Amino acid sequence: MTDGYWTDERRMMQEAARDFTTNEVLPVANELDPDKGEIPRELINKMGEMGYFGITIPEDKGGLGLGCMEYCIIAEELARGWMSVASIIARGNGFWRSVPGGGAERDEKIAQMAAGQYLGAFAMSEPNAGSDMASVACRATRDGDNWIISGNKYWCTFADGADFISVVCRVDSDSERRQGGMKSIAVEKPRGELPAGVQGSPIPKIGYHGWKTWELHFDNVRVPALEPEESEKEDSPASMAGGFVGIQRGLEVARAHTAARSIGAAQGALNVAIDYANEREQFGRPIGKFQAIRFKIATAATEIEAARQLMYHVCNEIDHGRRADKEAAMVKYFAAEMSERVTSECLQIMGGAGYTTHYPVERYWRDARLTKIFEGTSEIMQRIISDRLMGKG
Fold first, then answer.
1. Cross-strand partners of 293
2. Pick from 203, 87, 100, 214: which is nearest to 160 by CA?
3. Which are the contacts of 103, defined by CB distance < 8 A and separation ≥ 6?
4. N- to C-terminal Cα distance for the chain?
5. Distance of CA 248 to CAs 24, 80, 192, 299, 326, Å?
6. pLDDT in tens, 254-288
7. Is residue 220 classed as helix, strand or coil in its secondary structure?
8. 233 in helix, strand or coil?
9. CB 242 within 8 A of CB 101
10. How far is it, in rounded angstroms, from Cα 67 to Cα 65?
11. What's the rounded Cα separation, in Å, for the pair 288 and 277?
12. Which of 18, 113, 155, 365 could form a disulfide with 343 if both were Cys (CB 3.0 to 4.6 A apart)?
């Protein structure tokens, strides 16, 4: 049966993800996030068993063969527990096309990826290349059957825990082609280590704990030229197979995924604030009886639902093969701005208790702030939207 965007299967998946978050993710997050601990491998393995790393990987390659809608429904639920857990599933779903090699060996790697046993990391940003992606300077030079990579990368999350890193490099020496001549090169490595010859250090972050985010330095690092098969050279934020244009198109799914994470964080914070408001007594009654608190909760719930419905629309457009760059920018922008605002209001509802690590609302607040920055800042989203509406400025 169907009900708008919903089917019985999607509701079952949502309920299973919600139960998994309540029973498996939240306890781990509440224990480890205050100490900046990392997502345990045991939890990753359980997520692999649930199929969460292979939601969008085709069935004939070992995945579930589902779409952006299912991906975002599950990501929202996981983000209600820990946004980093909702993010790590992209290391499978968003990376399978960029798995290097060919034939049966590559198929086996993709099947392992769907099970959470072969995951990727993405190195695109640089000290001088953030919002201006076309200014990537890290260079790769072909030498026979190898690439030689030199340059610096910044904001590479999971560089140590991944099994390979997709490194975005400039391979064209023509300085006039800022938006061309770029390629993502897969650098395979032992899990738990940086690639041989790569130096790096973790970036100190105020949130997004559960894993490390790295700055990396490649100094004439030689790696085999293990290209994805021609049939897999499709638009993907990880593969860069389509060059600059390809990454722009691939970011539609990534931005819908970021919206899902934003919504999940906001909903998680609101759940905590509602429970607290029903229990905390002042002036002889629970604070949830006061109109000021009730109206804050009503406003937050309305904003969350508005973002959620826009996300469903964007996912539906993507799953039907329709271009949705403007709409993806809209939902990413709207949901991220909403999430920071709502989590801050939830913290306010809880007063001093909200500003402690005794409650997870401060975690949602810190993590929500990041959603306005990664996968394109709010300002870049506004630029994309206005360019589509008014032409380029």
1. none
2. 214
3. none
4. 46
5. 34, 28, 30, 33, 11
6. 999 999 999 999 999 999 999 999 999 999 999 99
7. strand
8. coil
9. no
10. 7
11. 4
12. 365
Q: What are the φ/ψ torsions at residue 153 (nearest 5 degrees)?
A: -130, 150
DSSP 78-132: HHTT-HHHHHHTHHHHTTGGG--S-HHHHHHHHHHHHTTSS-EEEE--BTTBSS-
Q: Domain 2-114: give its CATH code.
A: 1.10.540.10
* Cβ atoms within 10 Å of 287's Cβ, excluding its own: 19
Residue 31 has pLDDT above 90, yes or no: yes
Class of domain 120-232: mainly beta
Q: Do 120-232 and 2-114 have the same topology in CATH?
A: no
375 counts as catalytic: yes
What is the token pair recorded at 334?
A: 């709207």
CATH for 243-390, options being 3.40.630.10, 3.10.310.30, 1.20.140.10, 1.10.760.10 = 1.20.140.10
- In whole angstroms, what separates CA 359 from the centre of its chain? 24
The pairing of beta strand 213-224 with beta strand 146-157: antiparallel
Reported as a pLDDT band with limits 50, 70 and 90, residue 135 is confident
pLDDT tens digit string along 83-132? 999 999 999 999 999 999 999 999 999 999 999 999 999 999 999 988 88
Query: In this structure, how many other beta carbons lie within 10 angstroms of the beta carbon of residue 31?
Result: 11
Long-range Cβ pairs for the range 243-247 (8 Å, 24+)? 243/179, 243/180, 243/181, 243/182, 243/183, 244/133, 244/134, 244/179, 244/180, 244/182, 245/179, 247/124, 247/133, 247/168
How many Cα atoms sit within 13 Å of 266 on the Cβ side? 30
Catalytic: which of 188, 215, 345, 375? Answer: 375
Domain boundaries, the chain: 2-114, 120-232, 243-390
Q: 231 pLDDT exceeds 50?
A: no
Average pLDDT for the chain: 93
Structure tokens of 125? 């940003």
Residues 6+ positions from 191 with CB-CB distance below 8 Å: 161, 162, 163
Average pLDDT on 362-390 reads: 97
